[in-house]
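Quick one: structure tokens for this chain, please?
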Amino acid sequence: MTVVLGRERLDPEVFELPVEKMRDGYYTDAYFNHSRSALLAAGLHPRVLMQVFQKNRALLGGMDEAVAILKLCSHGWDNLVVRALHDGDWIEPWETVLTIEGDYTLFAHLETVYLGVLARRTVVATNVARVLEAARGKPVIFMPARHDHHRVQTGDGYAAYVAGLVLGAPIGVTSDAQASWWGGSAIGTVPHSLIAACGGDTVLAARTFADWAPEDMNVTVLVDFENDSVGTALEVARALGPRLWGVRLDTSESLVDRALWGEMGDFDPRGVNERLVRKVRAALDETGFDEVQIVVSGGFTIEKIRAFEERDVPVDAYGVGSSLIRGENDYTADVVVADGAEVAKVGRRLRENSRLEPVT
């Protein structure tokens, strides 16, 4: 199932941009600032067409943010002609995603920042989309917040949300910042820290959490604290009964869960693996807790999720962290027309794209 995103762009005010600093070139590579200053000093105001592209098949992210930067931080938005694709569009290598036409001195100081947001958000959106495809429609929890600076959370969360809409698959985020641009809310499980604060007693931590949690919250409990996922899952299920929505397996990739100690020899027993998941599922089913969901996390990548799905491992949701913010998807901006003449450097050329839409 594919969901088409609305064509309305986010209000520029949503992004809470540091407008004055951006307009002053504070975040910009110095050579762009110097070029603008040199043109102004010479009294030159070339009318250019700037063309933006990247070199991969990718899911576009960051375009509304890039447009907001141009609207709020240029020295004359009303004198620019901007055409762009939308967040959530699949894009091809070398496809033009954005054009900016007008007096170059009005926006030369913004190239670094709009390319940066496009690069970051497209990486995240594309990674999430590929994970969702690998998960075959199962929910994915977007969990990289602890692996990067807090200031990237909001835009990254929105990029993940866009990927979820495009793929028609559920995506959850773990901080309110990640959910803020689209009006969502964060989700989370009973963490190891709460278990430790309860003296290492997972059942006590689960009860404490469940007693506090709103009725509409899905209570999910980490069950690997004592490296006994089967035993702990059953203890928690018996203690919480129908209040328990799911258990989360998060065994370290340097550990072997107690349930597998007698079976090592013909598979890699470390971390969260197929055999461990099947053991937990079987134990829950055999004791009448067949409605308890299993969430897995810890080192899950596109490849590992794909392998689990191909083998029909009984996972109900995947928690994925740092792999969703890794990689690169660099964008390039070229002046390809100046004062009516094509001037692209060797190896580049004007690439028209009928999919571009005017930005007002």
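The CA atoms of residues 19 and 270 lie 49 Å apart.
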